[in-house]
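thought: fold this chain, then report.
action: predict
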Amino acid sequence: MYLYLPFFLERKFHMKINEFNFKDHLVFNPEEGKLLFHDERMIIMSAEAFGLYMRELINIGGAQLCKIFLRRLGESTGRMDAKSIKERLNPDTDLDWLAFGPVIHTWEGIVKAVPEQIDYDRDAGTFIMKGTWDNSFFAEQYLKIIGPSKEAVCWMLTGYATGYASEFFGRKLLCKEPTCVAKGDERCRFEIRLGNEWGDD
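observation:
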């Protein structure tokens, strides 16, 4: 049995960010073993299982390999989400489109993402976005399963923000995490800029 609101499956509207409710866009079909965001398949999995997976990656190839792998996974996911949201939700404004990235991650239970500064100019080619990541499940699981870190560990989040913002802006951007609770900071924070403004990563 499908549980959904048919109205939301038709692209006949402009979605405002403050009207978005993720539950209204999910299609539960247990008879086929599928969960869909419109026509895109989604999955639900244990956060702790993902934490154990991170530990295995680190044990096999070290923290650097785990970081590269999760950043790339996050970046590809972010780009796909940006395209999907543009197509399926038809954001009301350009800013709504950008804001959907943090909102989706918050709804998914990955992190409470709160942008604090968004300044961009497509014509001038300038972009900066800053904010906080509270209750990051990456930092939580890293501390729980691996222990304190000497560097920020929300690698998939920085990858996702990089991919989503780059797809949105049409130029290569790069997200970094200046502070992270996994290395003893009070909060996880993110900052996105043009890739060449950061220097070597």
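thought: worth noting. The mean pLDDT is 83.
final: tokens above.
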